[in-house]
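ingest -> fold -> write
write: protein_1
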Amino acid sequence: MKTIYIDGSLGEGGGQVLRSSLSLSMITGRPFRIEKIRAKRSKPGLMRQHLTCVRAAAEICGAEVEGDELKSQAVSFVPGKVQSGEYRFAVGTAGSTSLVFQTIFLPLLLASGDSIVQFEGGTHNSKAPSFDYLAKAFLPLIRKMGAEVDIELVRAGFYPAGQGQFVAEIRSIDSLSPIQILNRGELKARIAEAGLCNLDERIGKRELSKLAKALDLNLSEMKVRQYEGSAGVGNVLSLTYDFDELSEVFTGFGEKGITAEFVARGVSKEALRYIKEDAPVGDYLADQLLLPFALAGGGSFRTLALSQHFLTNKNIIETFLDVEIVTTRQSRLSWLVEIRNG
């Protein structure tokens, strides 16, 4: 089969180009070569989490790979048949386990047979979907498309210590079914959670207090959670809006030198921007839904402003699959995204 050549500096020039290419290569059986990997990042080439994605993909499909080493800026990938089974993938740092999961999840879902996969590394990362985001926002919609998958957090892992762990049970299906996400439905609940790892509970209470003032939350909508048995220190503030049709999660991370009030202000700003519009799918979720929707061969959703991540992912998907992803502006901050067979 003819090799697809990918420019890794495409669009936002980050790891998304590589991860989507790996997923699509495994699913379609089409080999690819990517050059200029992460060319627009301050440290270009494969970092530990990207290398783990490449090696995890190679392991589940017996791929022939060249360039799978740290800092490599070019990778050749010739996939074999995806094999279900039991796997363990460790990033080796606090790098995102969620991004490794998203690289291999769909290929294993569409393979023959069920799989159990253990992921080790960072579970709550500032530049990647957190475990909670996967569990509450992403996977419920994928289940509506017919997927059967469960994830369980064993131990939280924050930067820089990492050492987190979660397990995914993925049950095989023949195909995903198209769905439409055009409205949110009624708001059912709001939950603000301050997650703490080896930190004083007062930090979480300060975050929640600031969030409550900005969004008029009451005590029943807020809670502090201590992550037991985790290494190092960490803090994540998450706000979940549960609607009839979907849930959206807004996340902020505490870091050294950043106040609890600053973290809460960032989360409330994102939430207020989302609530102001009526599009159900947020920016980050839109990017993550593109690939499963394309594999379903149809469906549509309404989202906020299209991110560079979204446009980059769109380009890669249309390179591998015979689909057309049509975007139509509906208002200044609202777009309709439709997936059509090519």
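write: protein_2
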Amino acid sequence: MAIEWSLTIDCARPAKLAEFWALALGYVQAPPPVGFGSWEEWFTHCGVPEEERDQGAALSDPDGVGPRLSFLQVPESKVVKNRLHLDVQVGGGRATPWEVRWPRVLEAVDRLTAAGATVIREYQLQGKPDHMLMADPEGNEFCVL
């Protein structure tokens, strides 16, 4: 049996970065824990000081399939290349004809660039564009393919 897991991303501005990744992945703000009507209720119940309540954010897949994403505020900024990155698979995979797949990739790149991402590099495969390496608004690398 597989173990449920989530991914936590260290960042400076959790709510803003969560907003970007919600757009990138089609995720939504994670619902509060069962038995609580809001995150504020849960924070109060757990004794989280008000000044610490904006130090994190969480997203979930609205279909309940993908892993949960958490965003945790940390004091240091990103300084080196990620050892782990997300592949945002908008193109349909390499089995999808390039003429169908690549416009999907470009549309997503345009949408994510407008939301604050930057293109780092375009990768080629067999002489054609294949995928884009990008960085989110805080510099975390990810690929769009």
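write: annotation protein_2
The chain has three helices and eight strands.
Strands lie at 6-11, 28-29, 56-60, 68-73, 86-88, 118-125, 128-135, 141-144.
pipeline exit 0
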